[in-house]
Structure formats: structure tokens, C-alpha cells
Amino acid sequence: MFQRNENIKLYIVASLLFGAKTYMIYRFFFNINLENVVQELILFINPFVTAFLIFAVSVWMKEKNQLRFIRYAALLATLILYFNILFYRSFGDFLTIPLLFQGSNVADLGSSVIALIEPFDIFIFIDLALIWYLTVQKKWTLTTTFPRKKKLLVLSMALAFLLGNYILAEIERPQLLQRGFDREYLVKNIGLFNFHIYDIVQQSRSQAQRVFADGNELSSIITYVDENTTDNEETDLYGIAKGKNLIFVTLESLQTFVINNTLNGEEVTPFLNSLTEESYYFENFYHQTEQGKTADSEFIMENSLYPLPSGAAYFTHSGNTYHSTPQMLGEEGYMSAVFHANNSSFWNRNSMYDNLGVDQFYDINAYEVNDGNSVGWGLKDKEFFEQSMKYLTNLPEPYYARFITLTNHHPFDLDEEDATIDQFDSNSNTLNKYFQTVRYLDESIEEFFNHLKESGIYEDSIIVMMGDHYGISDFHNRAMSMYLDKEEITSYDQIQLQRVPFFVHIPGQEGGVMSQIGGQVDVKPTIMHLLGVDDSADISFGTNLFGPNRKDYVALRDGSFITDDYIFTKDVCYDRESGEELGSENSGILAGDDSDTETACSPFREQVELEMSYSDKIIYGDLFRFHDFTE
Ligand code: GP9
Ligand code: MN
Hints:
Layout: H1 10-28, H2 37-55, H3 63-91, H4 97-102, H5 105-116, H6 126-137, H7 148-172, H8 176-179, H9 183-211, H10 216-228, E1 245-251, E2 262-263, E3 266-267, H11 270-278, E4 280-286, H12 293-303, H13 313-316, H14 325-331, E5 335-339, H15 349-356, E6 360-362, E7 374-375, E8 378-379, H16 381-392, E9 399-404, H17 429-454, E10 461-467, H18 477-484, H19 491-496, E11 502-505, E12 512-519, H20 523-530, E13 553-555, E14 561-563, E15 566-569, E16 572-575, E17 581-584, H21 602-621
Parallel strand pairs: 1-9, 1-10, 4-12, 5-6, 5-9
Antiparallel strand pairs: 2-3, 4-11, 7-8, 10-11, 13-14, 14-15, 15-16, 16-17
Helix pairs in contact: 1-2, 1-3, 2-7, 2-9, 3-5, 3-6, 10-21, 16-17
The structure holds (2R)-2,3-dihydroxypropyl phosphate and manganese (II) ion.
């Protein structure tokens, strides 16, 4: 126990006790996955940093208030921890503001809360008891009036610790706060209390924008969409898959540059290559994701809206009203299910899926995952498809089943026995390994097709597959230029590298390679067209990829765009076919030139910006809550 020592002050005692307790709770009450030493270190120091930050406030108080403050702060913080523990026991997740106020989760919890309490929970209150014991029973005076210098010192120390914690977290997960990722990541890196503050700030920001929005803004958006992004023309393919199951596969990190390409003379993706001849394969299809990566790709294809310029709408706007593919198909009698062997809270999928009208989410708990059958991010794709079949075959038809693959994910780790193609040989380990996991993904898709055929599902379904986003960032451009046999990767090449494969496989139909430009916003209208669903009342920024009157450009979230003839990026307009520079739109004063330069790309530029701002308005203002889509 403590030696009675005049130098030990209550805020230090409380910080140490509360910090140690929080750490124990992180380790033993929550199931937090630690992947490396840095994560362990962060998880260890964070509780003390946070506790110090809370209790150090007391040094600014009058001596007689210090004790009271510390007691109440410790009690409140303990209750917050404890509510999280109870919630976690029931839902395997941390509390968030939207959950508290709008979720049915907490209401569900209410009735069973007693059942969640365990006898040893009493230890969670042990530091409170100890402080009480020392200060009341033992009458230790651990408080004092602090001189101004000391107050400032303690405050600076608290802030410096916080900054240190944040820097470590930023090293471990760049852009952690902007992107959100997963609640577990946030808690792991910044701690539960800072996570709650983060959550409150996020929620109030988006609430404010929502509060000031009204339905009037929608009418100009609807006019715009009707005039610019709608193609209601029926083609030969209209309703070709009416009433059939829709099987959608997200091809993790798969880029178009590997399709129909070779490594040391060997095809990288032999199965997908064969599918390019037996499907409608779109070779000029672009991903449009931003910080939300996979979640953005899902958001775009399910809603035909753009992702947000920062953060993931899956996190920031999961409570909005949407008019999504699962909802629209639900009205046609389709049951919808998502299969993905990861925690359901990753990318906040669990909340978002409920809201998007996904009926069933087969998350990690639906799968048997062990060391032998997983690699990198988790369950290997081949296992994933195999284990999914028992669920798929039992779904009531017609269904919309969406599969999200995982193995071909950075850092592209693969067990030796699964590697069936050599690594590339360059300075980029990432690109070198990419070919092996891409090949593995190709094989797993082939196996999935076989499962579908064997189970008889194949004939009654159409299979749509899409790459979610790039796998190889521009950081690896030197290695990439070696592989593509180019002198360098220019900004033009960089845009062309944002192409991801898009397949529409209709059993019994030949298909072929399609060269029109398209993007992820086009997926929803394309699906509706194939399934013969009337979507003329939808508000969507994409157009049916098979339509004759398509919107003639694809906008990327950073403002770059691709038209039939041009590519515009980083202020430069290029010829799409040749890559030749056609001129640059000045970047104004910074470029030492403030006269406006028009290029062939200029007319599109304004429209792209307008379109993005409309999409943002819908999301920030939650405008669909004012609209009746059945009218
Ligand atoms: C996680 C998986 C990968 O569940 O979808 O996400 P990403 O890092 O690609 O966005
Ligand atoms: Mn992804």
C-alpha cells in the first residue's frame, strides 16, 4: 500500500488507480484484438493518459473541492465504463450517441440488464472504495492548494501526454480520426473516453447540418438528376434477370490492370479472364471511393450517391433515410443478405445495414474461423465461400446476396501453400505480393462459381462482381511503372489505375468486353435495369451501363473526372485515348497566374462539382427524409 507521503497527491493516486483499472477492463472485459507491440503499448498508456487528463483538472480547484471533484469524476467515469461493459456483453460493441438516442439496442438491453451483471463486477468500483477509505477512514490529506506554476505544469503535462498518445495512434493508424474505421480501432488507439468525445463531436456536427436542412433543396436536385443522369430507355437486356437471384461479389482491392495481363508470361487471373468473354465485362469502369474504402464502395453501389469528401458515410450518416438497392428490391419481394467474415461493427456495417434494409448479415460469427483457415485480415476467401454455401442455399428466393471478399487486402499476406504464382520482383514488397493474393482471389471466385453450379443456384441467378477500390497506392508507383513497362506513372496513368473490374454474368448469355466508361454510381441503375425494376422515381447520380443515353462522364471524389474523350485530374486536361496533355486549368495565384485558362475539360468541370455538391447536400441534410419515393 501507499506510504504516507506528503508529495503524493490525490490526483496522482486517482489517476494511477483509475488508469490501472481501465487497462484491466480493456484487457479482460472487452475483447480487444491486439496485433502488434505498438498497439499493446498504446492500449497500456492510454488509460493513464486519460485518467491524468481528467483528474489533473482538480489542481485548479480550491482544496476543499478537490476531493469532491475527484470522487464524482471517478464515479461518473466508472459508470461510463460500466455501461459500456454491460452493453458490450450484450452486443459486442461500444456505446455511441445514435445508439443511445435512436437505437432499439438500448431498449432491448433495458429488460435484460440484470442478467448481464456479474458478481465480480464489484471490483470495477474498487478504486472508488480505496479513495474513500484513504481520505475518510484514514483521514489522509492528499490535497493541497497548488501554486500557479504547478497548475500550469500539470496542465501542460496532461496535454503533452495526450498529444503523445495521439501521435502514437496516428503512426499506428494514419488518419484514424478522419476515417473512423472501426469503433474497436478507435477505442484501442485513443481510449474509450476520447472515443465518446469524438463520437459526440461527430454526431453534433452532422446533426447541426441536418437540423438546418429542409425539403426545398430537393426540387432542384430532382430536376438536375432527371435532366442529366437518367436514362430510362429500355434495352434488350431490360428485365433479362427478372425474378432471378442477384449475387453480388465485392472483389477486394482488385484493379483492372491485372485482368488479361501476365506475370512472367503467366496469366494473373485466368478464371476472371475467361469470364471477360462469358460476361459483360466493363474495362473502363472506375471506383469512386474516398476515405471509407470498402464502406464507400458499398455506399456508392447501394445508393448511387457519392461518398463523402472525408470520413465514411457509413459512420457519419448511418442514421439517414436512404433509398437503397436492398430497400428497392425488398419491395419487389427480394430478401437481402450480406456475407462478410469480419466483425459486424467494422465500418459500422451493423448499424448501416439495418438502415439500408439488409435483412440478414452473416458476419464473423456465422463462420468458423481459426488459425488454420485464416490469413491476413481473417478467414481465407476460399473457406469463406465454402462456408457461406449452407446459408445461401437456405435463403428464400428470390434473394439479393452480397459477398465481400477479404484475402486480397493490404498487406497481401498469403500462406505459402496457397500461392500459385510467383511474386513480382521490385522494390515494392506490397506490389510483389499483390499478384499472389490476386491469383488466390481469382481461384476463390472460380470455386464459388463451382459451388453455385453444383447447388443449382447458378441457373436461377445473375452474378455481378466489382472491384471495390485500388489495392496499390501511388506510393508504389516506381514498382508499378516497372510492371507496366512505363518510364513513369503520370497523373493520367494514376487515374487509369483507378479502374476496377466490373462483371455482369448472366448464365446463358455470351456478353463481351464493353468499353463505355462507367463507375460505381452506375451499379444500382444497371441492376434495376437487368432485374426489370422501374426506378424512374429514384434519385440517383448514375445511369444504366447498358443504356444508349448514358451520362457521358465519371466523376471521382477528388474532382478528377473521365469523359468519353478526356481525362481531367490535378488541373490538367488529357486526351483519354492517348494520354496527351491538352492544357491546364490554372491553379490561380499559386501558379503565378490568375487568368482563367479554358480547356476542353472545362465544361464538364462545373457540372462535376455541382453534381458532387448535390450528393453531399442529400447526405449532410438527410434530405431523403422529406421525399416520398412512391410518388
Ligand atoms: C473490412 C474489409 C476491408 O471488413 O471490408 O476494408 P477496407 O480496408 O478495404 O476498407
Ligand atoms: Mn476494401
